[in-house]
Amino acid sequence: MSMDTCTDSSEGMKTPQVLSQWFVEKSQTCLKQQNDRFACKAFLLTAKSIYPQNFEIQYQAYCYEKSAQDVKQAASILLEMFHKFQQEPQLLEELQAISKALQGDSKDTQTSFLKDVYEHLPTTAQKEILVLCIDQCQNILEKSCLQMLLLRRFNKNGYEEAVSLVETLLNTEKSEGVKHVINPYRKLMVYKILPVILSMERLSQHCSTRQYSKWLQKTIEFFVTVAVQPHQKHVGGGEHLPHGMGGGGGGMAGGEGTELPEGSVWDNLQHILKLLAKSVHWETGFIAPAESGLGESWSVIQKHLKKSGSSCSSGKDGDSEEAVPPKPAFYASLVLLLRASHRYAALMNSQLHAGATSHHHHSQVLLEDLEPKKRSKKHKHAHKKRKLEADKDSHIDSDESDDVCDVIQPSEMTALSSEITEAFHTAMNCWQLLNSNELFQKDFNWLLRRWRAETWLWFNSFQADRLLYLGENVQAVAMLQTRLKAEHDDTPLDNQERIKTLVQLASIYHSMSRLSDACDSILEAISILRENYVEGNPNRGIVSEGSFAAGGRSGRVLHIIPATPTTLLPYCIQLVLLAFKKRVLHRADSNDTGLGHLIVLMQYYWPRDELLFNEAIRRIRKRGHFSYHSFLSYIINIDILEEFAYLKTEDGGKVNLDLLPSSSSVQRQRTVTRGVTRGGKEDFRAAMERQVMRCNDNVEGVILKFLSEERDSIKLTLADS
Fold first, then answer.
1. 3-state DSSP call for residue 544?
2. Do 626 and 592 contact (CB within 8 A), yes or no?
3. Helix and strand tally (H, E) in the chain?
4. Under a CB-based contact definition with an 8 Å cutoff, are residues 258 and 196 in contact?
5. Under 8 Å CB-to-CB from 445, ≥6 apart: which residues?
6. pTM to 2 decimal places
7. Residue 158 phi/psi, 5° resolution?
8. How confident is the model over 532-542, as pLDDT tens digits?
9. Residue 679 — pLDDT band, cuts 50, 70, 90?
10. Nearest in space to 130 (alpha carbons), one of 254, 248, 250, 241
11. Each residue's pLDDT tens digit, 323-374
């Protein structure tokens, strides 16, 4: 801009406004085009002297010092502008930038410079700037952050303001109808506000017990929700928080060490709990260090329960009020219960709870040992060509006398099983304490209802296993049935979780002797298992990850079993086999279809069930006839084929066997042993020869096909038996 173009038409000279603008533009030209910082500063100093009340010149001088990174001069000019031009939009914008820099933990040059400029201001001006920024702020979250910053720096005894700040956030969350627990208001309160104000001395004199309890309950609810959804974007997530509010750690300047420490969600919750306990003057000994393991944390609670003269069973039988464990024991146990039960659920279901770190790839399921009384017995089978003694009318009791080998083989305690067992027993101990007296039980149940814990799938998973462990079968069945019903509503189960639920339900039904219901659940699980079936598992045994003695009736054993088709299929077959043993062999008038189905199932664990097979054959010989038209579809075991071939002979009893389908066309392939050709019909002999050729077929696949295709017949047979 030339001097001529700036001349007033009436007076032939520059007006003050035009001249001040000229100084600003001239200084910028010197800096940008000529790179002459000295000339730029000279123009600005001259302009400031001539026009001390001109904001634009003052602001340009401030911007120059910012570019020069001169903290002292920038602070001096900023202070002058603050006193003279508080309502200027550019100045207010700069002050807001400074306030955001103070709240963040960024290390970039610009943020660091703004912090340094602020620190060079007089204390009074620092406080007034924050107050001005708070007055100008319309966003409740940003305003709360600034109020917290003001409290930490200049009003460390502002107890009423601190309490009001937390209540304002909670009231705003409620008034705005925020439905999701993870929202910006709760996040700000938990990560930034509470760690600071709970560290204030004498806060308890200005805060009611009810407020403390509400803060802690809201905090627990928040962290539990975060723990089970670690990788999801939540409503009101970090992207909607004020500057520097992405999560725990870092944050506002001043009062270092009051933010949440770096660590897991449970570590942070433990930290808040300990801060609150100190503020309320609770016995903090109940609260283990954040890095403590689950078992160690429970040991800490136990130790201090004994020290306080309380126990997990106190209060149940009208004990004195002094016997009730103190309040910190309640909250320490509550937090530990949630932490342990979540860990347990995550280890048992790695797919649904991918946020939990674990060293396995398969989900697990807790199941009853089907034959715990027989676990120590071993079976020695006789020679496969043993002939039946026609004159011996022996009877094998299907419930007591069978000699069996282990179907479920517990492995040595692994790192996984140790971790699962520790988590489960810790959660169980905490549950017992929280229900050890009426006061605790009332508060505990109230919190679960308030948090809508019935919607926590992971907690329901632990609950079902807890009820199974205690032998509370009716309640366990109801919970598992509710889970299956829920899949038709809002929370569909994936195939693996549905299989787990069905097999566990069948396991409980079996222990209740509801055999038809048990088989209904198993057959439904089989229909899903078959979709993902891959031939294998030549041992056809179940190797559990671990086991432990359960509560309820004596002798119960629970196994932790990988929830894979390879491991669950043997368990399913064993359960159906046991159901047939109890429903078929315990009756003298058992029908042919039941005996036939039982013999098909015996093939799976052969020769484990050879003595049981002998009992079935004895009954067939005694009757003198046997009809089972599915024989050729599912019987492939060479020992069983030879035994039936032998039954057809004079020596075997010349039993009338009706085993062929109604329309059969078989061709002779080779002679079956044991003399079946002597007097045998051609079609029977040919059919048996054909079956011998199948003896190397995959028996697991055959049984799986049997359970799928004969589902209706199996259910009908068990229902009628």
1. strand
2. yes
3. 29, 7
4. yes
5. none
6. 0.80
7. -80, 65
8. 777 655 555 66
9. very low
10. 254
11. 567 888 999 999 999 999 999 999 998 765 544 444 456 789 999 888 766 5
